Amino acid sequence: NEMVLIENVDLLRGEVAKRLLEFLSEGRMSIWIGPRCHTMDIAPATVIATASRPWQLAPSFRRWFISIPFGRYSPNEISEVLAQLAASEGLQLQRPAAELLAAQCQRTPGNALALLKRIKTHYRSMTAGSITAEAAQQLLHLLGYDLVECVTQIAH
Question: Per residue in 65-78, pLDDT tens?
């Protein structure tokens, strides 16, 4: 039994949503290649789907999913997640830098990872060694983040 992860399932529309619904309800999927329709049986799988706006999930999908609301991470937790993600990306964050960057992640790991990838991709030379709070402030400024808002979020 395989597992399938679908992020932001609430954003699926059109043919993609139809194909997913066909898989969930019938265990198969039809794919059009040119003028011919090819139908494939698909092995059962556990489907885990995330939705930032579950109320916008199409009613046809709701019967297939169990809603489990998750709370946001605390500022300390997302700072720790950010430090762990940075380590997995080959970056070393000092604690104050992790807190500064975490304030811009809206307390979600996906946003933290996206921020780290932007930093790593665009400012590799600035991330050699350990990233300090001062370097984090520079990086956030270069990426267009509002540092006044950032400092206010850390204070709370």
Answer: 888 877 788 999 99
